[in-house]
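R.M. (postdoc): so does anyone remember the format we settled on? I'll just put the structure tokens first.
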């Protein structure tokens, strides 16, 4: 069965190449940060030395926030996935977002170690570098996994948690984006380091959105060009290999902090039943489901999803100990409390 699946993937990739033109037309060599930065690292972007990496960071909003909001993106994404949230939150809160190692403009780790524990060390080093003593930590997909692991590692430092279609449990997906499937097969991932049709990126995005009509050419451009950042394609395959045996989901029950769980009802990569599992396992958590959104709801509909975050921050303001408590606009999601 495994051999048949690999063969099917090879044929699918060849079909994409042959139906959209000759292979040479899709030759896509790595691009340097110098080439990519003018478009994708405009102000307020900066590069900071964090854990041995020149790390792409955006740090916005008031400096007197006692518990800044730190945002962690998912696999193959970048800090830009939080643009909509940051536009709203940074009016009253300090918001820090970062390209995690192996993705965006930060690029690959020299040691090629993409285990979750190393990402927790990276996030800790980021907080130290920025002088952040306490924070609200939010993460989407793989970034959500890193977020809850960081909260367990530093229970007094992380004051609240926002999990957006988060990973961490043994996963049975309904559908996996083709880009992720290719990265898991050595033969195909090796080919993809040199040949990358833009249509492959678009297909993967369509798979992750609840409403594919929301996908714009500019969005495809962003994912495509940042995938080409030198070293990112090799890092993706290494990240998947590292992540297969690292999760200890039983530890999720040890989380004892205010937690908001946001989920897209049309998420086929990490289906909504995992939202319910997080909700059961984290005592006192709040769950907000967005029935029409997919795997990256913060990107697909930032206005509706950030409204739920505002409401959560207001309801937990004393335990989060933030310096400000923004007014919560109406949320379009279905809310469940308890856990």
């Amino acid at each position: 069965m495994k051999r048949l699946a690999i063969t099917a993937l090879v044929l699918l990739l060849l079909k994409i190449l042959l139906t959209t033109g000759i292979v040479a037309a899709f030759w896509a060599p790595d691009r340097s940060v110098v080439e990519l930065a003018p478009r994708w690292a405009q102000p307020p972007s900066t590069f900071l030395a964090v854990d041995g990496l020149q790390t792409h960071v955006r740090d916005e909003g008031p400096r007197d926030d006692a518990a800044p909001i730190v945002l962690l993106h998912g696999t193959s994404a970048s800090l830009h996935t939080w643009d909509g949230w940051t536009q709203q939150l940074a009016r009253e809160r300090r918001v820090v977002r970062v390209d995690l190692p192996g993705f965006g403009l930060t690029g690959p780790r020299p040691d090629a170690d993409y285990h979750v524990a190393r990402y927790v060390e990276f996030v800790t080093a980021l907080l130290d570098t920025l002088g952040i003593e306490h924070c609200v930590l939010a993460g989407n997909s793989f970034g959500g996994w890193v977020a809850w692991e960081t909260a367990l590692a530093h229970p007094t430092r992380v004051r609240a948690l926002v999990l957006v279609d988060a990973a961490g449990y043994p996963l049975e997906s309904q559908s996996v984006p083709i880009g992720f499937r290719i990265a898991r097969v050595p033969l195909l991932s090796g080919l993809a380091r040199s040949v990358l049709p833009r249509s492959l990126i678009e297909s993967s995005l369509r798979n992750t959105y609840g409403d594919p009509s929301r996908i714009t050419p500019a969005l495809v451009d962003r994912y495509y060009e940042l995938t080409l950042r030198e070293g990112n394609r090799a890092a993706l395959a290494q990240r998947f290999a590292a992540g297969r045996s690292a999760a200890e989901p039983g530890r999720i029950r040890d989380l004892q902090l205010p937690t908001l769980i946001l989920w897209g009802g049309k998420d086929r990569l990490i289906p909504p039943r995992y939202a319910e599992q997080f909700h059961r396992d984290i005592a006192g958590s709040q769950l907000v489901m967005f029935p029409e959104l997919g795997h990256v709801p913060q990107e697909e509909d930032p206005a509706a999803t950030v409204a739920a975050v505002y409401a959560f921050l207001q309801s937990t303001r004393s335990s989060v100990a933030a310096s400000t408590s923004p007014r919560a606009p109406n949320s379009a999601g279905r809310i469940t409390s308890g856990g």
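R.M.: ...and that's the designed sequence above, right after the tokens. Also worth knowing: The first helix runs from residue 2 to 20. Residues 28-336 form a domain with the Rossmann fold fold (CATH 3.40.50.1820).
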